[in-house]
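Appendix B. Worked example

We walk through a single record from start to finish. Start with the input: the chain for Exocyst complex component, Eptatretus burgeri, length 819.
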Amino acid sequence: MVCVLFRIAELFHSHDVSRVFCHLCITLLSVIYITPPRSQPVQVVLHLKEGRKTSDAFCAKMAESESLEITAEHERILREIESTDTACIGPTLRSVYDGSEHEHFLDKLETRIKGHDREIEKMCNFHYQGFVDSITELLKVQVVSTNQQLQDSGKEMVSRMEELNRCLVQQRNIATTIDKLTLCLPVLKMYSRLNDQMKAKRYYPALKTLDILEHEFLPKVIQYRFSRIMMDALPKLRQQIRDVSMSDLKDFLESIRKHSEHIGQTAMRQAEQQRGLDSSAPRKGCGPETHLGRKDAGSSSDAEVDTNSPASEQDSGILEEDDDVEEEGARDKFENYYQQQRRQQARLVLSAQSNMHETLEGYKKYFNQIVGFFVVEDHILHTTQGLVNNAYMEELWAMALSKIIAVLRTHSSYSTDPNLVLDLKNLIVIFADTLQGYGYLVNQLFDLLLEIRDQYCEVLLKKWAAVFRQLFDDDNYTPILVNSQEEFQNVTNQFPLVDVALEEESFPKKIPFSQFVPSIFAQVKAFTQACLKFSEDLHLSSTEIDDMIRKSANLLLTRVLSSALQSLIRKTHIGLTELVQIIINTTYLEQSCKHLEEFVTDITNVSPETVHTTKLYGTSTFKDARHTAEEEIYTKLNQKIDEFLQLADYDWMLVEPLGHASDYLVDLINFLRSTFAVFTHLPGKVAQTACMSACKHLASTLLQLLLNPEVKQLTMGAIQQFNLDLLQCESFASSEPVSGLQGETLQLAFIDLRQLLDLFMVWDWSTYLADYGQASSKYLRVNPSTALVLLEKGFWSREPFLMFHLSGNQTHHHLTSTT
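Next comes the structure step. The output line below is what the pipeline stores for this chain.
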């Protein structure tokens, strides 16, 4: 269709027909493009593409003629707009918007508007002066008339406004007066209250009132003259209050100095009661604190200062009064005075009396004064501001703590009563707990307690040394005889005796050891319990307590008990019977050491298998004592033998023997028999060693009698009598005086003396000389020098002497050369 239309358009050459035709074509194309039929969209697009090439050529030809036509059309529309009523301008504008040259029309319209504006401006410039004159005349007429009307109607309103203004000024003046009076009346009331309080001597409220008046009220009324009068009077009032406060402070210092002991006693009593409550509850654990200085405590303590004390009645007002005076410029003066006075009081409190160590009351008074002093200081710290501070408290407490430790260390060293030392320890613990509750650090006091613990141990050792000596002096050194089960049970309750055979015996029974065995065992246990008492409340672990008790027990065993046993054994009045009993006793005590270990383990709850656990040295102590007793038995037995031998009175010039042994030797043998019979309860080796030692000593002493330089001559009769005594000794040795020791063994002790006597009695010098130096010699144990000395003392009978004169000379020569 488009192609047909463009072909028809080519037949027309007039401009109008071409324009109309083009407009018709464009309208038709726009209709077709905008609202194409739904059934044929594809065909319309194809037709448009085919017709676009043809229309481009056509439009190019018609563009030049079309611009002239458009310009004429726009001129026509503009004339029509200028001449047409605004109600009918719609169709005209519609024709513009139906065209396609909107922008071009707008340019034309803008040019036409500017032209009209120039014409209007020319017209106004021409008629401006007349217009201005007309307007001016009009305004004059209207303004004069309006002004007159306004003046007439505003007179009444002006009078009313003036009246209203006067009322507002009066109202404003009244309000201002009320405000000023409202501002001044509280000042006057406050000043009147201040005067009343000063007259009533209520200085603390007066000081508060003065402070409020000066800082809150007077600055608001400073422009008034009466405020300056008040300001001039305030310094005098403040000085008056300051003087009164200083006087009250001095009275307060004197009061708390007098009542510090009562305050401290109350605080320590409350702390002790609290400790009792805490100790009744199960403890989860404890540990020492490690700090320096003084802790910051939020509150003074659970134990408050006694509010009924005279000091507490004063400090409620005086301290706060001082607080405010400090704020007014006298702070340094009050601080320095107070701290200086309190330091002096502290030095007096910390100075102990010279006899304080004699009674517990002296220590209590000393501690009460110190606690009272520092409780007051803590109370002042937490109830005032600026009078004391933490730095001052730390310095004061450090000084006091060093002084306290020095005093306690000195006076505790003077104490000899363990009960007093133990009470002192408990008092120090309460003292430390009390001050710790108020925030003071007391670690050094617990360190001091460890030092006092060592002193306490030394005092206990001295006490138990006297106890042991008394037990040894009171003992009868005989086995305990029990006649009933009750008596036997009493002994076994004191000492862990395990002897099945003894338990099966009928009463009366004889317990092998003497009474000091259960007594010593009980005293060692009592000593460990006394050491344990001191360890309570020292914040020590179970291991530390166990180590302390074991070390103290070892000191008791190795130093005190061992020394007491050694002294006992070496006493001159202790005989062989007592020594035998001591050996038996120490044997049982040695066996009981394992029970002491169990006892210590039970009271400390620390296993002995724990690493670094100290073992008790009781076994070695009792072993050493037993060995000393054994040596003492050997020594005393030899001394007894010497005493009997001192009774020997040999007639060395005896012609014929008496026919029996000497009386002294018979008595000696009987003594030895009875003595060794007592040795049945001793260990076998001890009795055997004692018997062998006695026989050897007896043999050597008898030989010394023969070789005594004072014996110048002796006869064969004396030798034969001496032989009878030796036979008595050999008979004793062969009788097995001690179980387990064969007679032949004991006889070896007398073999040297036997061979020597046989040599002289048989006069078998030829055999001696012939076999000398041989192992099979009959007289192997005869020393040549001994034989020579005895030969030189001989005063033999003539026949034997002549018979063996030649051989005797030869023998003498041979012995001399041998020697």
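Two observations about the output. The radius of gyration is 69 Å. The first strand starts at residue 480 and ends at 482.
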